């Protein structure tokens, strides 16, 4: 498994998996089936892991940490289900999505169920402040999703708009995981801020690399259809960079008029330009910022894990 | 307005409306627009009113009560938005639905946003127990919605299945409003239970009357398309009663094979049988049970409001 390389936390993440599965219950058989499918299709549990690791820098309150970690992972699952409705996606992590298997109607309410479960888990352990933190993150995710939807097929999306969008879509939940973990451990305000920024920056890099994979990877290796984003009018950094900085920008704009038919040609333009290198460079800049931000924690064994995780974000090929 | 007839609480409900509107904020312009549309299209704010009225039977903690009332109304709005996605509905309270105006994608995340806002409002004032109460209600609503979806076009739906479904769909939120109001006022366990049952029973009656209107009312008077339910395979009590108790049951089953084309004939069968009378009788039985349940509170001026409200549920023509 992914966490084999981190013996210091591997066991706890394996134990946590059982706890997470046991939180995912419903008396309605179809909901139970849908959320079990999703839970079992895996995922690396990066958000819970970040929460646990950042909580290890101070007084480790296992019960509180696990409850927060489960809540955030369940929330992440809820957003995946609703995301797949928007994207009309059939595959997620190589498995059929809830909406493909059970229909959009079930997907809407299965997602709602998980959203509610998030708060149900939190209601048991979280403080008022932690609840507010989580609900703020979710509201921003929703706002980001709708912004992304509104920006579709808009060739005038700015870099700023793109970075704001991936912040909402991905980075804020990474940031929230770290902030909640560090907060639970009773760290100083400055340390919490540093770890929260670490989370945000690796989240930005994570999404940049994902957006890059949309062009460089075959669909089978990432378990979802290739070129999904631009064929649906969602323009990521490789597209924006080529549009604005390359001599092929005008040609690309024309091809994007009919993205499905021109999909192969669009990909060739993007890969033949320096757009993917540029995107990777920006991702690596974020990783460097992330590592810089937690320099003050050097010496602690969990600092090494965070540094290694940051490197993996940009060196992964999955 | 609806509350003109109840001077004892009318002013507070008017004041509360501003508070509710001010809770409905988003920095994302499209979400803001969508939720404003919905909020302004009105509704009688029955759930907040029930919460306030039941809270008047003891020590009235206005700040807590308003926060709970706003949370439940926002939750109700969230379920309406997601409901309309499932039902493919174009009209709600005579106005275009969020999904009809902005598309399903926006509707999914605007609903999620409101779900989250519910918990955000609660995080400020509610106790852990109140949070758990609300999240339990939402989970049951989600389970009920999925059950309803699964039962579509199933001619073997039982009465029991139907009553369970309308309990989840409508009655539990009425029950929750009353339970939270009574709980906040520090009433005895028995009183809280009585008021909660009052809420559940009028909620059951409310949904029964709604289901009856599906056959007896023109679409313009209830602000939504007529005969919506059975054309989508959702069989309510008038249908079930005719199927199981009437000599036209077999004929009806055949007609339901093609409910859209046979819509007029189906309605005639239902209205020419005693199905609507039967449905109204069951609704009135619930209203009597509701009033019985709160007999112990007689003498209190708010008891009169609850009794009058119960009567209105079955005597309304909107």
Automatic annotation (TrEMBL), chains A, B:
GO biological process, one term: isoprenoid biosynthetic process
InterPro entries in the cross-refs: Isoprenoid_synthase_dom_sf, Polyprenyl_synt, Polyprenyl_synt_CS
CDD domains associated with the record: Trans_IPPS_HT
GO MF entries: metal ion binding; prenyltransferase activity
Named cofactor requirement(s): Mg(2+)
Pfam families: polyprenyl_synt
Name of this chain's protein: Heptaprenyl diphosphate synthase
């Amino acid at each position: 498994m992914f966490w084999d390389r981190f013996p210091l936390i591997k066991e706890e993440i394996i134990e946590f998996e059982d706890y997470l599965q046991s939180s995912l219950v419903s008396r309605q058989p179809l909901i139970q089936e849908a959320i079990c499918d999703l839970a079992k299709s895996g995922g690396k549990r990066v958000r819970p892991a970040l929460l646990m690791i950042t909580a290890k820098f101070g007084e480790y309150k296992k019960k509180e940490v696990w409850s927060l970690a489960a809540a955030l992972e369940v929330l992440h699952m809820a957003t995946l289900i609703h995301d797949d409705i928007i994207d009309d996606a059939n595959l997620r992590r190589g498995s059929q999505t809830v909406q493909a298997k059970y229909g959009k109607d079930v997907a809407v309410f299965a997602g709602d169920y998980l959203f509610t479960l998030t708060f149900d888990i939190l209601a048991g352990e979280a403080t008022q402040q932690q609840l507010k933190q989580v609900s703020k993150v979710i509201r921003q995710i929703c706002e980001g999703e709708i912004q992304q939807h509104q920006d579709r097929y808009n060739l005038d999306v700015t870099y700023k708009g793109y970075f704001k969008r991936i912040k909402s879509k991905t980075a804020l939940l990474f940031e929230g995981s770290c902030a909640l973990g560090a907060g639970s451990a009773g760290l100083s305000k400055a340390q919490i801020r540093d770890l929260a920024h670490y989370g945000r920056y690796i989240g930005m890099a994570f999404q940049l690399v994902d957006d890059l994979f949309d062009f460089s990877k075959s669909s089978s290796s990432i378990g979802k259809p290739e070129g999904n984003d631009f064929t649906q009018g969602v323009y990521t950094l490789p597209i924006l960079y080529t549009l604005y900085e390359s001599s092929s920008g005008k040609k690309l704009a024309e091809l994007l008029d009919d993205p499905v038919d021109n999909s192969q040609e669009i990909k060739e333009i993007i890969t033949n330009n320096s757009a993917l290198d540029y995107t990777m460079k920006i991702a690596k800049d974020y990783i460097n910022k992330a590592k810089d931000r937690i320099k003050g924690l050097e010496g602690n064994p969990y600092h090494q894990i965070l540094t290694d995780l940051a490197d993996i974000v940009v060196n992964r090929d999955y």
